[in-house]
Amino acid sequence: MGIPYGRQSIDDDDIAAVVDVLHGDWLTIGPRVAEFESEIARVAGSSGAVAVSSGTAALHCAYAGIGIGPGDEVITTPLTFVATAATAMAQGARIVFADITPDTGTLDPAAAAAALTPRTRVIAGVDYAGHPIDARALGDVAHGAGAVLLEDAAHSIGSTFEGIPVGSLADVTTFSFFPTKNMTSGEGGAVVAKDAAVLDRIRTFRSQGMVRDPALLRYPDEGPWHQEVHSIGLNYRLPDVLCALGQSQLARLDRFKAKRAAIHARYNRELGGIDGLTLPTTRAGVDPMWHLYPIRVPAPERKRIFTELRAAGVLVQVNYLPVYWHPVFEDLGYRRGMCPVAETYYQEEISLPMYADLSEHDQDRVIEELQRALRV
Ligand SMILES: *Cc1c(COP(=O)(O)O)cnc(C)c1O
User: Fold this and answer.
1) Per-residue pLDDT for 1 more than 90?
2) What is the pLDDT of residues 4-21, one digit of tens each?
3) Do 273 and 206 share a structural domain?
4) Are 58 and 117 members of one domain?
5) Are residues 369 and 263 in the same domain?
6) What is the pLDDT of residue 376?
7) Which of 250, 269, 295 is the last residue in one of the domains?
8) CA-to-CA distance for 314 and 301, rounded, in angstroms?
């Protein structure tokens, strides 16, 4: 078997936690949901969290909770998974892409500022590879325009900036618990928000828009069974079975972070100083939970190096095709060349294997095969 670019780390405690829920009364909408949510809120330094069925659902809930709709514009980075943009479009928004900074691969505050229009409602940054966005500068840009700063933290639960955890940096933050991410619930995600009203709307949107609080009902005398819908929602709930796995994983987050940091440091040490190879940057004050180890090689060599590594069983990945290069965006009129820094980043990028259970032996193999492919 090859060495994957990312994978989950499952232990006996994780398995026992899931089995325990399976023996109980609540497979979903039970007590594990609120427990998991309060534990996420603690890690994120926020007053509350909403657990949802994926990182994509988290983004959709975030845009819905902020109140994004037709006529609104969302500024985001092209160097991300398509869901960051797609979920805003599902709400009817128009996406405006702004370029990245070449060191961290995250949204450039100056480019975001230049993309503002009177219709801008959200600036959505992505903590690429686990490195937090420049939330202070992006927050200033967003708030100066009356917009909300959304942080897609699918890569970065556990990262901090000047000791402040991701989850407390932006107005709204979303997480993903897909198996390749920093921790997993199989599928899953979560949203945290500083504004309690936004979080309430997210909670309602997650459960088909259903309102149960008697104080909020339009027809409170209908009967004790009564619940009603005031705005359309979907079913984005995370079942107790998966919340239990998430809880068990969250308890090991610090250990996962230390392992990922050690792998990152070892790559830095072994791969430093190689001509034509650019390693990931860590900005001052940032302590990332590294989800990816993104290297950059000369663009004309990227496909060959990638193919040779894959053939050698090092199952590297590329993160990401610039979002507007997807045909669906091309068909809407988005054109190549719009964000040249992100396009160059993409053309040079390869993600090396990075996960908590990556052994030193396997990491040595990755390093050797990369050196072979680089002809050093
Ligand atoms: C993984 C990911 C998502 C989507 O998360 P899922 O849980 O797979 O739906 C969104 N944004 C980014 C940046 C991601 O890496």
Assistant:
1) no
2) 999 999 999 999 999 999
3) no
4) yes
5) yes
6) 82
7) 250
8) 17
- Tell me the whole-structure pTM to 2 decimals: 0.98
Query: Is 90 exceeded by the pLDDT of residue 342?
Result: yes
**Spacing, Cα 55 to ligand 1 middle (Å):** 5
Cβ atoms within 10 Å, residue 98: 25
Residue 226 CA to ligand 1 center (angstroms) comes to 36
Pocket test for ligand 1, best of 7, 60, 107, 176 (most atoms within 8 A of CB): 176
Task: Please tell me the distance from the alpha carbon of residue 164 to that of residue 178, in angstroms, as a whole number.
Answer: 24
User: Ligand 1 test: best mutation among 80, 81, 317, most atoms within 8 Å of CB?
Assistant: 81
84 contacts: CB under 8 Å, gap ≥ 6: 59, 76, 77, 124, 126, 152, 323
Q: Cα–Cα distance between 366 and 3 in angstroms, integer? A: 8
CA 155 from chain center: how many Å?
A: 4
Percent of the chain residues topping a pLDDT of 90: 99
Instruction: Tell how far the Cα of 212 is from the centroid of ligand 1, in angstroms.
Output: 31
Q: Round to whole Å and give the CA distance between 358 and 353.
A: 8
126 in ligand 1 pocket by Cβ < 6 Å?
yes
Residue 327: which CATH number?
3.90.1150.10
Same domain, 216 and 277: no
**Residue 199: which domain range?**
3-250
Counting the structural domains of the chain, the total is: 2
**Spatial separation of the C-alpha atoms in residues 172 and 149, rounded to whole Å:** 7
Q: Which residue has the tokens 């053309």?
A: 347
Tell whether 122 and 23 lie within a shared domain: yes
Residue 293, preceding peptide bond in cis (omega within 30° of 0): no
Which residues make beta-bridge pairs with 100? 107
**CA pair distance 51, 175, nearest whole angstrom:** 9
Task: Specify which residues 124 forms β-bridges with.
Answer: 76, 150
Is there a single domain that holds both residue 108 and residue 149?
Answer: yes
Please list, in sequence order, all residues whose beta carbon lies within 8 angstroms of the beta carbon of residue 318, skipping any fewer than 6 positions away. 306, 346, 349, 350, 351
Count Cβ atoms below 10 Å from residue 153 Cβ, excluding itself: 35
Domain end, chosen from 250, 271, 294, is at 250
